[in-house]
Amino acid sequence: MRRLAVVVVILSAGIAPTIAKQEPSSSLEVAKNDFAKAQALATQLAALSPKVDPKEAKAVAECAYATAHRLRSQYHMFGTPIFNNFLVYHGFRKRGYCYQWTEDLLLALDALKLKTLELHWGESYAGTWRENNCLVITAKGQPFERGMILEAWRHFGYLRWNLLLSDEDRYFENTKWAARVRSRAAAAKTSEPRHGVAFQRRVTATEKSSE
Fold it and tell me: Nearest CA to 127 among 193, 206, 210?
């Protein structure tokens, strides 16, 4: 019996480290290369209004960078953003369109249950092959135009952010699309939406606006 106990202890000691290695890391873990950038984003988000909770701004910044890092790996980005669309279009990638980046980022940040910051869906060149989607963050109650853009598709999966009014493109809010994304996620539906982006199947200029 004593020998059996010794064998069990030895086997347990050998298996435990293996199990520990397989445990997933925290979804909010920020990569070392992104740590300073996340801090800078948190500072800028907190500066949107005196009413913004600095801790909430920090949580949003860390979640945004951690999510972009995770999606970059999941989407297996390759080549230019347009070429990556080409890969998705032909079935070599499951996801990676600009609106899919925005959807996943929106849902990840929604999980934080924000109280002093609000999330908005932004789009430019809507309904055309040049359409680009992004997330816009404002202080609670602030106009969309005073928000901060969060976008990763154009920069090959690396998060970029800047004030909406300083962006080279003009973005407009689409509250209906944001509501649709949230509703679909809540209902756990698997149907794919249609957007007017380069290299996407069966898209017309009016499909998105009519939905």
Answer: 206
